[in-house]
Structures are given as structure tokens and as C-alpha cells.
Amino acid sequence: MSQPDLEAALREGFPDAEIEITDLAGDGDHYKARIVSAAFKGMPRVRQHQLVYASLKGKMGGELHALALETSAPA
Amino acid sequence: MTDTATANPVHEWIANAVAEHPVILFMKGEPEQPRCGFSAVTVQILDHLGVEFVGVDVLQNDQLREGIKSFSDWPTIPQLYVKGEFVGGCDIVREMFQSGELKSLLEEQGLLAA
User: Fold this and answer.
1) Chain B partners of A68 at a C-beta cutoff of 8 Å?
2) Hey, are the CB atoms on B76 and A50 less than 8 Å from each other?
């Protein structure tokens, strides 16, 4: 999955978010995403990450092998 | 956990396994020989904390490999369960380890001496 595609999917899922994507291996398959969104407020981390995976509509674990996540709500 | 837990034999097996073992890690490979970097990191953290855990190699069984993903509603492996509760995958476990939350959780559950 290309970085622009990943970013577009995350932006669609979290329109208000501050999103920062790092390509960890340069192979289009291992990314790190830092997402700061009000949508995460009051949620345990597992739920925050589940929300991110849901925005990727099943691509995680398939088309996208590795996405390290760092999620939080705005301070 | 979903409503289909009882209808799906793999989900039933997983539900029993997480109820039976206080700390259980669904991973790729065996704890002694992980076959994925993310599983290896998670095992290292648990070993470092010195907590006893059971590792289940999902690569031994395709039904289990897919079943654990739908059971937890989580698309990746490894997956850590503590006292029947899904804690998270590699990133969350690492974050919780670094912040000290994982150690506190295990201590609160009586799985590590405080």
C-alpha cells in the first residue's frame, strides 16, 4: 500500500486528525502512523487502534503488513 | 468477543484458552523461537518482566490464525490476553511496558510479585 493511499484512508477516517506517517523500511509495506484525533478521547488504546483498523477497511494484515500505531486524543 | 463465540468452534476453543491461562500470547512461532519480529519483541517483554505465560503458535493452524483475528476484532498477530481480557498487540504491549502500565497490570492481577 502506498504512503499516499494510506494517508488518504486515514484522513477519510479521521478528518479532524493530526496525522504523521513514517515509512519504516522504504518498501511500501511497513509504516508507522501517529494519529492525534478527538475521536480517541476517553477510549482505551485497544479501541483506538480498532478504530484505525476499521478505517483501513480490512487492508490491515493483508495489503498492509505492518503499521505501527501511536494514537492519542488532543491534549 | 462476539455473539458468534459459541457458534464457532475455533472461537469456543480460544474463549476456553484465555479463560484457562492467566497470561496467554497468540503469536507466530514458539516463545523459544518466534517467527516474526513483532512476536519476538512481545515475548522479550514478557520474559523481561518475568511473568509466566503460555504461547500459542497460530502458524500451526490456519483456522486458529484467522479465528483469533475475528475473536478479538484485531487484524494482526501477536495478541496478548491477561485474565481473559484482550490487552493488545505488539505496539500497545511495548507502550504499556515502557510506561510501566504493563507491570502494574500484572501486579494488580497477582501475576507478578509487586
Assistant:
1) 91
2) no
Alpha-carbon gap, residue A43 to A29, rounded angstroms? 28
Fold classification of A3-72 is GMP Synthetase; Chain A, domain 3 (3.30.300)
Which of B75, B87, B92 minimises the CB distance to A53?
A: B75
pLDDT band with cut points at 50, 70 and 90 for residue B5: very low
Is any Cβ of chain A less than 8 angstroms from the Cβ of B92?
Answer: yes
Strand residues in A1-75 grouped as ranges (E)? 18-23, 30-36, 66-72
- pTM of the predicted model as reported, rounded to 2 decimal places: 0.87
pLDDT in tens, B75-92: 999 999 999 999 999 999
Q: Measure in Å the smallest separation between the Cα of A11 and chain B Cα atoms.
A: 20
- Find the closest chain A residue to B95 by CA distance: A70
If you ran DSSP here, which 8-state letter would residue A73 be given?
Answer: -
Q: Is residue B114 part of a domain?
A: no
Range of the domain at B8: 3-108
Residue A54 contacts residue A18 (beta carbons within 8 Å): no
Structural domain tally of chain B? 1
pLDDT band at A43 (very low <50, low <70, confident <90, very high): very high
**Inside any domain, residue B113:** no
Q: What is the pLDDT of residue A66?
A: 84
